[in-house]
């Protein structure tokens, strides 16, 4: 199980996990959060259109090439 190499904590106790997507791959490949933990995934897309989804959380976010989004 991989974890993010860049994790920061903001003043409001929200953990920011930095990820990249490229060539149909996400890095890190797995992220883990504790139940109830506030997390922002800061996703940067390198190449083609991707989406970031978590059905259990009702997430399905489209991200274009060269774009960074906080999810």
Structure overview:
- The structure is a single chain.
- With 71 residues, this protein is mainly beta.
- It is built from no helices and seven strands.
- Strands 1, 2, 3, 4 and 7 form a five-stranded mixed sheet that branches. It has a two-stranded antiparallel sheet with strand order 5-6.
- A hairpin with a 4-residue loop joins strand 5 and strand 6 (59-63).
- The two termini are 21 Å apart.
- 10% of the residues are buried.
Give the oligomer, counting copies of the same chain as homo and different chains as hetero.
Answer: single chain
How much helix is in the residues? under 10%
Unreliable spans are: 1-6
What separation lies between the terminal Cα atoms? 21 Å
Average pLDDT for all residues: 86
Overall shape:
globular
Put simply, the count of helices is 0
Strand content: over 45%
Radius of gyration, CA atoms, in whole angstroms: 12 Å
Sheet having the most strands: 5 strands, mixed
Number of beta-strand segments: 7
Secondary structure category:
mainly beta
N-to-C SSE series? EEEEEEE
In short:
This protein is mainly beta and 71 residues long. The chain is built from no helices and seven strands.
């Amino acid at each position: 199980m991989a974890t993010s190499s860049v994790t920061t904590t903001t003043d409001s106790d929200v953990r920011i996990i930095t990820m990249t997507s490229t060539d149909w791959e996400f890095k890190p490949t797995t992220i883990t959060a504790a139940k109830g933990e506030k997390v922002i995934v800061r996703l940067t897309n390198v190449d083609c259109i991707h989406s970031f989804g978590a059905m259990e959380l009702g997430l399905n976010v489209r991200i274009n090439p060269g774009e960074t989004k906080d999810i």
